[in-house]
Inverse folding.
């Protein structure tokens, strides 16, 4: 018999934000193949004998997507119940769609277990709503790490700037100078508020704030590193009004 593969989102990293279904599957499955981005407490809770690290880091050691696909297929054909554990939501820049297509093409049953995406959760815990009646009636989610084989970016920064809503960039710390420059070239106001949320909901969460014109310098001074979410738009300014009452803030707040 062929086993089932569950594409499970771990949420932004706080184990309390795992869904009930995700927690149950982690307890009962035969094996977990996890990324690097589930929070450290979640990864540390996985039994060593039932978990495999197949994570990828930009510029570091990595397990190729082809290898991950083949390992999922191998385990399923052994009749195993497999959890493919991903950071955030499996279908939001998580390559879950690619894995689902691969497994379905090979006759493997697949079930998707959605989660709270860090694109919403990380700003929220930092006091930033991605939409706000006074500031933004729309939000756009953008990857800062496109397929490197593409000849040119598929992101239309001019169109995004023209919407007037919030822009949330995932996996975009390294390319911050590129897309902030692109937005400035479209005529976006240099004083547009920007926030960088590093390790949102993790115990060592940090936040750096600035403007479209200054945020690269702020990033460098605060030494913000991946994983981090970038929030561009007027909503980033709301953080100032709730900062004093945030309960999960690390004392160091880079850039302020």
């Amino acid at each position: 018999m062929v086993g089932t593969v569950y594409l499970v989102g771990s949420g932004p990293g706080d184990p309390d934000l795992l869904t009930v279904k995700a927690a149950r599957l982690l307890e009962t499955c035969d094996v977990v193949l996890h990324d690097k981005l589930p929070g450290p407490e979640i990864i540390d809770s996985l039994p060593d004998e039932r978990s495999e690290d197949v994570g990828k880091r930009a510029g570091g050691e990595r397990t190729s997507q082809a290898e991950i696909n083949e390992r999922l297929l191998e385990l399923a054909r052994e009749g195993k119940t497999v959890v493919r554990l991903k950071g955030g939501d499996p279908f939001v820049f998580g390559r879950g769609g690619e894995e689902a297509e691969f497994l379905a093409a090979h006759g493997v049953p697949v079930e998707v277990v959605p989660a709270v995406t860090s694109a919403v959760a990380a700003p929220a815990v930092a006091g930033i709503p991605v939409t706000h009646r006074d500031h933004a009636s729309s939000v756009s989610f953008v990857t800062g790490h496109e397929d490197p084989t593409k000849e040119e970016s598929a992101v239309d920064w001019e169109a995004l700037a023209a919407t007037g809503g919030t822009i949330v960039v995932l996996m975009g710390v390294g390319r911050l100078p590129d897309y902030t420059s692109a937005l400035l070239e479209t005529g976006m106001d240099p004083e547009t508020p920007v926030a960088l949320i590093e390790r949102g909901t993790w115990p060592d969460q940090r936040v750096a704030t600035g403007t479209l014109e200054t945020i690269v310098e702020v990033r460098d001074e605060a030494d913000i590193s991946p994983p981090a979410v970038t929030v561009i738009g007027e909503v980033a300014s709301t953080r100032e009004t709730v900062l004093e009452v945030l309960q999960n803030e690390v004392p160091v707040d880079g850039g302020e």
About this structure: The first strand starts at residue 5 and ends at 9. The chain has two domains: 5-113, 118-245. Strands lie at 5-9, 31-34, 51-53, 82-86, 110-113, 139-143, 166-170, 193-198, 206-211, 228-232.
